[in-house]
């Protein structure tokens, strides 16, 4: 749909007094409230907002007309991936800032099959096999209050953490490193059990905890409100995918326009449900 037509249909949908639904491509149907929340800078973004926009980015990445602008070879998982890692790791360490309460034996751990599905590209719906990319992007919600994302660098075998609140913890980068322990500890096991090394022909890595580094406040844009972490995360993921890193040149003032456009882009790629 052309932009004017998208805006006309979008406004008609959002302002319709009747409760209407649209399918947004992530095994979910949403009503007008989904788009109103996405547009409103004061509203927190939820998992459906995140997955819907990531799905759209990956759709563009594979589109013949748009794929040229996506310069990085990446796979992007959904929000459920880290949630599952967290549930597993809490069996061994209920508090990520405290010692383990149960001994973890990497060599004896049975990786759930659905996590292997991520590695071979069968999950999520927009998944890409890790053996065919250079990086894996992982979004997650930490501490019950904040969206951040990490990039797992498969060649260098380390993790970079992107955090729009890094200015609030400038002298304590280990806080985020501890919060992403489920990823650091379990990602190596998923690679081993999924056949990643055989498929990628890359040098085998051990099962030790992966090193993670959080970018400093001057390296990634910082939010100045309490509700924009999700938008900063999505914008950051987009920049990484198109190869604009490290030139993250967006700021807080850009977020309202980004959220407004994201709502219309998701709408334009959704399907009306009768």
Automatic annotation (TrEMBL):
The keyword Transmembrane helix does not apply. Residues 28-240 form the Ubiquitin-like protease family profile domain. GO terms for biological process: protein desumoylation; proteolysis. Keywords: Hydrolase, Protease, Thiol protease. It holds the Pfam family Peptidase_C48. InterPro entries: Papain-like_cys_pep_sf, Peptidase_C48_C. One of its GO terms (molecular function) is deSUMOylase activity. GO terms for cellular component: nucleus. It comes from the Eukaryota. The keyword Metal-binding does not apply. Belongs to the peptidase C48 family. This is Ubiquitin-like protease family profile domain-containing protein.
């Amino acid at each position: 749909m052309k932009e004017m037509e998208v805006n006309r249909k979008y406004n008609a949908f959002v302002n319709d007094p009747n409760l209407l639904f649209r399918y947004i491509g992530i095994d979910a149907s949403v009503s007008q409230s989904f788009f109103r929340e996405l547009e409103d800078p004061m509203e927190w973004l939820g998992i459906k907002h995140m997955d819907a926009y990531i799905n759209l980015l990956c759709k563009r990445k594979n589109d013949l007309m748009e794929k040229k602008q996506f310069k990085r070879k990446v796979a992007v998982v959904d929000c459920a991936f880290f949630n599952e890692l967290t549930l597993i790791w809490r069996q061994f360490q209920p508090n990520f800032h405290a010692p383990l309460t149960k001994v973890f034996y990497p060599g004896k751990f049975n990786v759930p099959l659905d996590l292997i599905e991520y590695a071979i590209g069968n999950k999520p719906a927009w998944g890409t096999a890790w053996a065919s990319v250079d990086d894996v992007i992982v979004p997650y919600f930490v501490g019950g209050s904040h969206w951040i994302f990490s990039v797992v660098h498969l060649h260098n075998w380390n993790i970079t953490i992107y955090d729009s609140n890094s200015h609030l913890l400038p002298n304590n980068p280990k806080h985020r490193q501890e919060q992403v322990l489920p990823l650091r500890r379990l990602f190596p096991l998923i690679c081993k059990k999924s056949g990643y090394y055989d498929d990628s022909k890359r040098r085998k890595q051990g099962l030790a905890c992966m090193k993670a580094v959080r970018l400093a406040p001057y390296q990634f844009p910082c939010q100045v409100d309490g509700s924009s972490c999700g938008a900063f995360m999505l914008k950051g993921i987009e920049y990484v995918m198109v190869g604009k890193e490290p030139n993250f040149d967006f700021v807080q003032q850009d977020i309202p326009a980004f959220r407004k456009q994201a709502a219309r882009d998701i709408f334009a790629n959704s399907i009306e449900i009768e």
